Amino acid sequence: MYPELGQLALILALLLAVLLSVVPLVGALTGRDSLQAFARPLASGMFVFTGLAFAILAHAFLVDDFSVAYVANNSNSMLPWYYKFSAVWGGHEGSLLLWALMLSGWTLAVTIFSRKLPSVMISQVLSVLGMIAVGFFLFVIITSNPFDRLLPNIPADGRDLNPLLQDIGLIMHPPMLYMGYVGFSVAFAFAIAALINGRLDAAWARWSRPWTTVAWAFLTVGIALGSWWAYYELGWGGWWFWDPVENASLLPWLSGTALMHSLAVTEKRGVFKSWTVLLAIVSFALSLLGTFLVRSGVLTSVHAFASDPERGSFLLMLLGITVVASLVLYAFRAPVVHVRSRYGSLSREVFLLFNNVLLVSATALVGIGTLYPLVLDYLEMGKLSIGEPFFNTTFSPLAVATGLLLGVGIFSRWKKTDGGWLARKLLWPLALSTAITAAVMIGYGGFTPWAFLGVFAAVWVTVATFWDLWDKSSSRNGRLYGLRRQSRSYWGMVLGHLGVAMVMAGATIVSNYGIERDVRMQPGDSAMVGDYRIVFTDIGQREGPNYTSEYGSFDVYLDGKQVSELHPEKRNYTVGMSMMTEADIDAGLFRDVFVAIGERISDEAWAIRVQYKPLVRWLWLGALVMALGGFLAIADKRYRIRVSKEKEAKVIQPDASGKTAEVTS
Amino acid sequence: MKRLFLFLPLIVAVAVGVFLFAGIGKDPTRLESVLIGKPVPEFSLESLNDPERRLDTSLLKGEVSLLNVWAEWCPSCWDEHKYLMHLSKDKGVRIVGLNYKDEREAAFRFLNQLGNPYETIIFDPKGKLGFDLGVYGAPETFVIDADGVVRYRHVGVVNQKVWEQELLPVINKAKGNS
Q1: Which candidate in A375, A380, A520, A603 is best for mutational testing of the B interface (most B CBs within 10 A)?
Q2: DSSP run (H or E) holding B98
Q3: Closest residue on chain B to A601 (Cα)
Q4: Which residue ranges form the domains of chain B, and what is each CATH number?
Q5: Residue B116 near residue B94 (C-beta atoms within 8 A)
Q6: ipTM of this predicted structure
Q7: pLDDT-derived band at A261, boundaries 50, 70, 90
Q8: Does the pLDDT value for residue A144 go beyond 80?
């Protein structure tokens, strides 16, 4: 009975989404307030029914209702309850339902936090979100219904959740990622509404900024969780594989990062409008592309999701309609009038423009690398996948360049920066960064040009950020007062940039100074990795809730002292008959020691993978710091106060876009 | 004129869309070996039976042969072995073995138990040649023509069906050409 109610809830949500995509928009275009007033209730209703559908599916999982095909395929009665719950989004149908739930959640959030926005604007934004929702509800209901039943032959037990997904990292990873993906739909909706209105002004940029920032922050956390999970769960000890699905999440992140910065310029200085609106469209399009790539199976990936041509075609159609419609609108409505350059060649505007050029180049590069195999296949030039070397050699220079530019950009001023002043300003930070980098090189022992550049970029960003903080916080009332006086959005920027520096440092150090060894070991053997001696003491067996496992015991010694004992496992999941390698890691802020059991070579001996991973944690900590910066930035006071001021300004002078920017910057 | 530039993103998006559409429904996992039509990668490895003897690509020239990747630790290799014995004993097929990531003693134990269908066995304990050949996992079987060029790659067990439907046609063609 319940699953049918779930289906009904989904259909009702679809109907509300259809109404939401039409009624408020018509109201906005014809200027009828009565129709615009429907936007909020419709959005709330859509959320309620999607939430109901999701709750019913979750209930089916928790009570082991194997008459529901999706539950039978992705769960098992032996599964612990928390995995039963996370199994709701463990497969295709449920993860799309989660997508839809998040979309209606974001839509609801827009209705709550945008009370002070002009009604016309908010109606259009909500209508655009409604259109996206229509597409996804149709997709779920037509091609991927999670409530399909297996009647009358109800299976006695389920086929179990993919063991790869039975993990805390994977409980959190998809929701965070989807929050990011779907979050860009809000920035997209604002961009479309602004294009329809022809009002791409500073106010539009200010409204879009917090939404973009928070979506970006979620996406950052999502990507970091995925990378962390791959590191300890896939058993290879790598943290980024340039796998198509990983790339699919990196694409909107890169363009979203560009969008955040370009929105800042548009808000403060009223320039780059056409560019910013294009980035907003592209970021969301790339989020959809990511969903398409993951769910259609057109590319090979470690994320071995079932591919289904029907679903692929439907998603592509959805993607096509969204992208073509918005880009046609863009082509006809985006302003071509070039704003007379109100900024000098060394201004902050120009630095942010370079930042955008680099980030968009990186996006294009990752995009080309990911889609190139498809293009080749289409042109019948053979199957091929582009591997890590391509990405590593092309992406690293862009990352380093972005870091170097970032450090300079921090000191630059809006409108005009004096070249001589800037050069003098950079002298000391430059010297300090070089000295620190040299010390790091000596500490890790061994100089390579790339390691030097990567570490230098990271140190440079850090030094510049703190230097600027020091400059800004000087105050007659003391340093502490000066620090407190800084706005939350400034602190957000500081954290964001420090996070980037941490990720750069982690990536560079672990790639250049990490050690990986595959050794043949039997109990009693020992192996050296870096300064660590790893002794294989024993191998045994144990039973888990839904698996049996062979586990090894390893003692880790540093300078003759034992630092830890590790128990990597090889698990055999009984229901699905699949083997999983569980690495064990002695984690530390400055280094990880990683041991994983590989295949059994002979009766006594095993292939053991031992790794020394310096600073690997900084990759994920850095991402968290970045995300924290994002959340801090949106908590800034001005988003709450200025909105109402803005509205008043609008009433007095509807077309004063340039002036309002001046006033509020 | 400037407005025309604004159509650029649209054009790029449509072009990407065409490729994406073409990709739907194709199976991306069917990666053919990139080596097909190319010579076997250079190698210099010991013979399994005689550590003093170095083998190289000349071993695979002069005659059409099967290159079979196997190991004692690989359960499917045990299943496959009987059919390989049949091929070499009864059909006179030349089979060269590639003992992959294995130990000498284990390999001997395997052959003593099941017999030896191989004319020569390349000993590749580190999987070097296996890596160059792009081996996913044992067993895999390659058809090599008389010029030492890879003609076909089969992943998985060789049995009568695979032999008749996949390997034999390729071998006959390779024999016809040279």
Answers
A1: A375
A2: strand B95-100
A3: B73
A4: 32-177 (3.40.30.10)
A5: no
A6: 0.75
A7: very high
A8: yes
